[in-house]
Automatic annotation (TrEMBL):
Region of interest: Disordered: 305-352
Superkingdom of this protein's organism: Archaea
Short name of any one Pfam family annotated for the protein: DUF5787
Biased composition (Basic and acidic residues): 336-352
Organism: Halolamina litorea
Entry-linked InterPro entries: DUF5787
The protein's name in its UniProt record: DUF5787 family protein
Length: 352
């Protein structure tokens, strides 16, 4: 059996995502949104490796309005991308010529027409021809479903070189203020003063120390895996900044939230090779992480690809031993994680 020890930032990141899904926000009732108690904590959507062109966050937690999230689910499970989102938000309740109904996109209208056809094909809006004109109307109002966006940078081992790079990244996050809060998640050392508190990080960034051990050799993730060592300051994404004005911030935040909704954090099967005979999932407490039977450990995302020297396709015989006829264990892994991703869009969901 492979050794499930945390041997990469990739595995640590997956465990942080699962912890956030289980127990966000990471403190007592004082961390509730708008004074809510812990029992009334908002539903969350957790994703990973998302951000802007110049900055990609390891983990993103979208705190959602429950009614707004329920309304967002009516638009389906897929991301509403940057071309479709203006259509969905601004499509009128009654039929109207699309150029009269939509704001100027800032680029040629022919691209808007292409987006209209895509949006109508997905059932996001309705379209019709009135003479030579294309008219549109909405199926339902697009909800204001996002309360807050929280960015988490993961670094299990915080040495001096890693701390220097992280300091610049966290400073960028604080300055741009696209997120409402910025956190650093690192491994707990058990020292009297955690090393993360001795590094020169922006004081606005919070610090979480994670303990994924259970006193033995096998790591695990549970709801109480995190300790808050430094509380973050609340940033101001609604105000103008040096990099983005408030309108641009709002647009980018909507896109980030949509991408998080569609992607989740279990989408690593799209960038790894679960169809390899050595790929497996290992339970770590209330979480599942990928492990490699050839390497006998948790692999990194970069290692798990067709260029891996140990990669072997699943034997065809595996596809006839109780698995769906259209695929073997790799298809089963994808189906399992997709079911859990769908369940996570319908919170509260605290089971494994």
């Amino acid at each position: 059996m492979p050794d499930p020890a945390i041997s990469s930032e990739f595995t640590f990141e997956l465990l942080v995502c699962r912890w956030a899904e289980l127990d966000w926000p990471p403190d007592d009732a004082a961390r509730g949104v708008d004074g809510e108690s812990a029992d009334a904590a908002p539903p969350v959507i957790v994703s990973r490796q998302l951000g802007t062109q110049k900055r990609r966050w390891d983990t993103i937690v979208i705190e959602c309005d429950p009614e707004g999230l329920a309304a967002r689910r009516e638009f389906g499970d897929r991301t509403i991308d940057g071309d479709l989102l203006p259509l969905v938000r601004h499509a009128p309740a009654e039929w109207a010529y699309y150029r009269d109904a939509l704001p100027d996109p800032g680029y040629p209208w022919r691209y808007v027409r292409e987006a209209i056809h895509r949006g109508a094909a997905r059932g996001l809006i309705e379209k019709r021809k009135n003479g030579r004109r294309i008219e549109i109307r909405r199926n339902r109002p697009y909800p204001d479903w996002v309360r807050r966006i929280v960015a988490i940078e993961n670094k299990p081992d915080l040495d001096a070189s890693a701390a220097a790079a992280l300091s610049d990244q966290l400073e960028h996050d604080v300055e741009t203020a696209l997120a409402d809060e910025v956190w650093l998640a690192t491994g707990r050392t058990g020292e009297r003063v955690e090393p993360a508190l001795l590094r020169e990080f922006p004081v606005e960034a919070g610090v979480l120390t994670m303990d994924f051990g259970d006193g033995g050799d096998r790591p695990r993730v549970d709801a109480d895996a995190a300790t808050v060592d430094w509380l973050p300051s609340t940033l101001e994404p609604q105000s103008d900044g040096e990099r983005f004005d408030s309108a641009e911030k709002a647009r980018r935040r909507r896109l980030i939230a949509e991408r998080a909704y569609g992607k989740g954090w279990r989408s690593f099967t799209e960038t790894t090779r679960p169809d390899c005979r050595w790929f497996d999932l290992e339970r770590m407490g209330r979480g599942l992480v990928p492990v490699c039977g050839a390497k006998r450990r948790c692999q990194s995302e970069a290692e798990c690809g067709s260029r891996c020297g140990s990669f072997e396709p699943e034997p065809p015989q595996w596809r006839t031993k109780g698995w769906p006829i259209e695929g073997g264990p790799g298809k089963g892994v994808r189906a399992l994680l997709e079911r859990r991703r769908e369940r996570a869009r319908d919170p509260p969901s605290k089971s494994s």
